[in-house]
Design brief:
mainly alpha, 82% helix, 0% strand
Length: 473
């Protein structure tokens, strides 16, 4: 196994360990915290998480452009003086937005929990968007170990503060938000230290590098809008639920989404190290790598669905007040199939091939579909079951559109695989929704075995290709 393959495995171990820690802390927040705070308070916490998911819009693709333009570069060769100016220009912009949003919130909102949530979201925007530039630089230049350290510090500090509050029985959603911001702020300081030759160098005189800023925004804004539209695809439905039902109902549905989303942590870990690797790979190898990774990933993701029923039973016994929301695991658990494939494979490949414009087009089309469906399910019919089901349907539509487009570029055939995976997913949702017993596992096991038999030859080739990639890459 050569040096490149060893580095790949080493980087994966860094990201795996940091994301494993994130998974443990997410489990604490998602599964432990609801036991100790009220349903409505948990709803406000989820509202904060929901809102902060969109603060990245306010760097206008600046950080995404840096990620795309400098992905695969070596950190030592970067123009440090240029990035010194870029960093402080971004901080100034975010500070301006922060002050503006605080003033606007005082004018248009009454004092209360929503005002607190929105003001803390504004502060989160200042911290997170500034940190993103440094994290994207570390990630793009393959300093994965340092990237992992920053993310670990953020979550460890947050976990320590949360656990300390639980031990003295002093916890509410406002303290949870405060602890989250403390972790993010200190991790920003640490990221600044890791990039001190960019952030703190005394040899650089600050100047406004507007041309570089415009170039980065020009390149990154398509990806930023694509990511923003991608988040809104689910976000529109969640917003509809929050507006048509109570904050408590929003919290219960969000809990189920969070449980499904926790599975994405490991998938994102692979995606973080995959992008720089693909940028440095010969283009003729991309189709073979794609098919290999696709077959391997889908076999695993379809297998993960086996844990649905035992996990659901454990959660209902642990969080009986959330049983009404946990029933939606049957509808939302399969979303990890489509989200996982999008995050690890399709988006990573489209970014590598610089198809941000098509990513944006697909996401805007699917976002339009999402808005129409949300209006129908949450306003016209006001049916929560249909609203939640629409989430996985919309994600499936986006995944299929995107992969069919990518398959044409790579000149590979995936239509039969898509149909096979959709059939298995529909079967799972049907039996999980209508059968509330261990028979779910038996029926799905039989279907999964049929899938493995059909894919036996492909999976055998995939196994051989993975060995070759590790040994010869």
């Amino acid at each position: 196994m050569n040096h490149k393959a060893i580095n790949l495995l080493r980087n994966f171990s860094y990201t795996l360990s940091s994301n494993l820690l994130s998974l443990i802390i997410s489990t604490l927040v998602v599964l432990i915290i609801p036991k100790f705070i009220g349903v409505e308070e948990y709803g406000y916490w989820q509202l904060y998480i929901f809102y902060t998911g969109y603060v990245g819009f306010f760097h206008f693709g600046w950080n995404d452009g840096i990620y795309l333009r400098y992905g695969g570069e070596h950190y030592e060769k970067l123009n440090k003086r240029l990035f010194h100016s870029q960093f402080y220009m971004l901080v100034m912009l975010q500070a301006l937005f922060f002050v503006s949003f605080i003033l606007i919130s005082f004018v248009f909102l009454d004092s209360g929990n929503r005002l607190f949530v929105l003001q803390m979201t504004s502060f989160c925007m200042l911290i997170v968007n500034s940190r993103y530039m440094l994290l994207f630089l570390l990630q793009a230049t393959n300093r994965i170990k340092d990237y992992a350290r920053v993310t670990i510090l953020d979550r460890v500090l947050y976990a320590i503060l949360i656990i300390s509050s639980l031990t003295i029985n002093f916890i509410d959603f406002k303290w949870m938000i405060t602890f989250d911001l403390v972790g993010k702020s200190l991790s920003l300081i640490y990221a600044m230290y890791l990039c001190k030759d960019i952030v703190f160098s005394k040899t650089f005189s600050f100047y406004f590098s507007f041309k570089e800023m415009i170039d980065n925004i020009h390149v990154g804004i398509k990806l930023m809008f694509s990511n923003f539209a991608s988040k809104l695809i689910i976000g529109v439905v969640r917003f509809g639920v929050e507006r048509s039902w109570s904050v408590s109902t929003f919290g219960k549905v969000s809990l189920t989404l969070s449980i499904s989303g926790m599975m994405m942590i490991f998938i994102n870990a692979i995606g973080i190290i995959l992008f720089p690797l693909l940028r440095r790979s010969p283009e003729e190898k991309l189709p073979t790598v794609y098919i290999t990774m696709r077959d391997f990933l889908m076999a695993i993701l379809l297998g993960i669905l086996f844990i649905y029923y035992p996990l659901k039973e454990i959660l209902i016994n642990w969080l009986p007040h959330y049983e009404e929301g946990l029933k939606y695991m049957a509808l939302l658990f399969p979303m990890l199939l489509f989200e996982g494939k999008m995050a690890l494979l399709i988006n990573t490949y489209l970014k590598t091939l610089r198809k941000e414009k098509m990513m944006l087009t697909i996401n805007l089309i699917v976002l339009t579909i999402s808005i129409i469906i949300t209006v129908i399910t949450t306003i016209i019919f006001k049916n929560l079951d249909l609203a939640v089901l629409s989430i996985v349907i919309i994600l499936a539509i986006r995944s299929i559109f995107s992969e069919l487009y990518l398959s044409k570029i790579l000149k590979v055939s995936v239509a039969k695989d898509i149909i096979l995976e959709l059939g298995l997913t529909v079967l799972f949702i049907f039996i999980a929704w209508f059968i509330d017993s261990w028979y779910i596992i038996i029926i799905y096991f039989m279907a999964y075995v049929v899938y493995l038999i059909i894919k036996y030859k492909d999976l055998t080739v995939t196994y051989r290709n993975i060995i070759k990639i590790l040994v010869k890459s």
